[in-house]
Write a structure and sequence with these properties.
The chain has one helix spanning 2-16, and strands at 23-38, 46-57, 61-70, 73-77, 80-99, 103-120, 123-140, 146-157, 162-175. The protein has a single domain (2-175), classed as Porin, CATH 2.40.160.20. An 8-stranded antiparallel β-barrel has the order 1-2-3-5-6-7-8-9. By secondary structure, it is mainly beta. Strand 7 and strand 8 (146-157) form a beta hairpin.
Length: 177
């Protein structure tokens, strides 16, 4: 709850500096399908919702903060049922590689902190790890205020629960011009 309130306050701060020269604040939402390389008993695929707030600099790049939370997924391994959930937050640096008139190709590098929450017959366990995220994608801006983005990210983690992950995300951004 504290992270959500902090994120909302950050989004309002970004909105308040609208029209601040070449910096353009924005907020967004993504649907992410994540396939982490997980421990044996954990679910292998997660549906994740992600909210973002960022500052874009003159269509050249952006700094974006994110908070992600997955649905609770279930895995059946013989007679053992395991439920897992991923939560994460962090920041990505996005670089616009090539701009068309209303579209751009994006590259990203970022850092995150993800927590894996697991529940099975042995009880509840939480594991937290640092994640380095590398990505490539594109964004289309049909209007000045709206953008639609698709990204593929590969994440490297130092967690026992998962070592790496492949993510595909689609989402929308609202720019405060």
């Amino acid at each position: 709850m504290k992270k959500s309130l902090l994120f909302a306050a950050t989004a309002l701060l970004f909105a308040s500096v609208a029209n601040a020269g070449p910096l353009t604040p924005y907020v967004g939402f993504d649907y992410v399908n994540m396939a982490p390389n997980v421990a044996d008993s954990l679910p292998e695929n997660y549906d994740v919702g992600s909210i973002n707030a960022g500052l874009r600099y003159d269509n050249a790049g952006a700094l974006e903060l994110f908070y992600s939370r997955s649905m609770r997924e279930k895995s059946n391994n013989g007679n053992m049922v395991t439920r897992g959930r991923l939560n994460g937050y962090g920041a990505d640096l996005l670089i616009s590689g090539y701009d068309f008139s209303q579209a751009s190709i994006l590259g990203s590098v970022g850092y995150g902190r993800f927590t894996t929450k697991m529940r099975d017959q042995g009880g509840n366990r939480n594991e937290t790890g640092n994640v380095v995220r590398l990505g490539v994608g594109g964004e289309i801006n049909p209007t000045l205020n709206w953008g639609f983005r698709a990204m593929f990210r590969y994440s490297l983690a130092d967690s026992e629960a998962f070592k790496n992950a492949k993510e595909f995300s689609v989402g929308a951004r609202y720019y405060f011009y």
